[in-house]
Amino acid sequence: MKNIKNSNRKVISIINTLVIVTLVSFFNSPAWAQERPNILLIIADDLGYGDLGVYGGDINTPNIDALANAGQLFTQFHTAPTCAVTRAMLLSGNNNNVAGLAVQGTNPGPVIPGLAGYENALSDRVALLPQLLQDVDYRTYIAGKWHLGEEVEHLPKAAGFGRSFVMEFGAGNHFNDVGLRGGGSRYWNGNEQVAWPDGGYSTEVYTNKLLEYLEADKESDEPFFMIAAYTSPHWPLQVPEDELNLYSGRYDMGYDALREQRFASLKSAGIIPADSLLPPRNDAIILWSALSPEQQRNESRKMELYAAMVDNLDGHVGRLIEYLRTNNLFDNTLIVFMADNGAAGEDFYNRGPFIDFVRSHHNNSYENMGKPDSWVAYGPQWAEAGSAPFKRYKGFTTEGGIIAPMIISGPGVNSETRISDTYIAVPDLTQTFLDLAGGSYPDDKAPMIGESAWPYLSGATDRVHDGDYVTVLTQSQRAFVRQGDWKLVSIERPFDERNFTLHNLKNDPGEVVDLSESNPEKRANMIKIWREKRREYGIVLPEDL
Q1: pLDDT digit string (tens) for 142-163?
Q2: What's the whole-model pTM score?
Q3: CATH topology of domain 38-466
Q4: Annotation says 465 is catalytic
Q5: What ranges do the domains of the chain cover?
């Protein structure tokens, strides 16, 4: 009798254990995230790594900071080196070469008409996330920057967005349709080309559109996927008249001092390790102390305008969040805030192929900086301050070009972690969104390369990827290979495999020390991975032509 009772207890114990395991598994699964959440993806354009208040920055960003305080802030989120390439990876969940964006616009090629990977528009080799979400009854919206193709067949509607208002190109005036070059910017409402709303400022216009879409479909029971693809704080640095002087005098100390301040504030905020080393200063940038007083005055003004744009952006993020709260949508909305690449070093008013057009159509006098007929950029000098812990900035395959701020908040997200240093990349977001929505990927398309981050976000696992996970990317003859903490990187043009340098990012996040000679076997193995992925992704380099 005693043995029977003991046996029964064991059976009951096993059943209880199975029930608990099942429940834990269920509650940590995508299906438990409030039964298929709404998904709001907010993209800041060219935002620096250390700009946000919650990242230790000095710019006022209370709305974005609040998302981080209620969710998770990521310190090792990786993008592509430039905006269109990141967006292609985001909508496809794939390598940029497979998605059709091996190069971006006028960046160094090779640009090879008709060659797979070099279309400079989304390719038909991939299935696009908005289409897959529509298949499982999600409403799909986008407002803001597109930059993924100029023909109607490459616009948001064809990509699966039910409602859209986008700027076709990669950059434009924030107040009108004056573009970077002759012909102006083009804007599309669905498949209809439209004019820019007279007098509207970009963040306000795009936010208004998104709120308009939500309001129009207010009675719908279907969840939504919405991208707020802001063009701020991308140059030209322009803000509404009453915000021009919000940060007056804040950056008179100069870009060299700000770089050191940002590095220290990132440490204080717990974003980078306390024993991190600041990479050597870029000697190509003129010392702040070597500038004349007038030059320093103009340079400080650039950063003041940039900070005002970030402040303005935060205000409109707050408008989106307030709408969600007011309409009982907030608690069931996964919100992802991200930047699309590292801080931007371009300055087409002073250099580059469009200098004649830009100078002939704009007035960059000190008194006019930041106004609708100016075209100000803060250049590599401030970009390196914005990328302080890392080497270089947007356009480079070093960490300064491909690591960006990201915050995830919403139902089911484990907020106890708060600051996360797990490695996560753009394609992982795509897979995560698809899993949360209950969607599936077709067998006849190139498979996604990311992994769902939901097990990590929900607290079920302690990282997104294991140590063997490989990322390979090339853009415009710059390349990198990453496996675990190890990275091969090449930024010289034209590309030459011999220019790869080897770094251990755990010990050297600034990519200062080349370990190629001391670790020849590791370098050889990484080169082997590079060659295999080159073939798999169809990467073409000058030597192949």
Answers
A1: 999 999 988 899 999 999 999 9
A2: 0.93
A3: Alkaline Phosphatase, subunit A (3.40.720)
A4: no
A5: 38-466
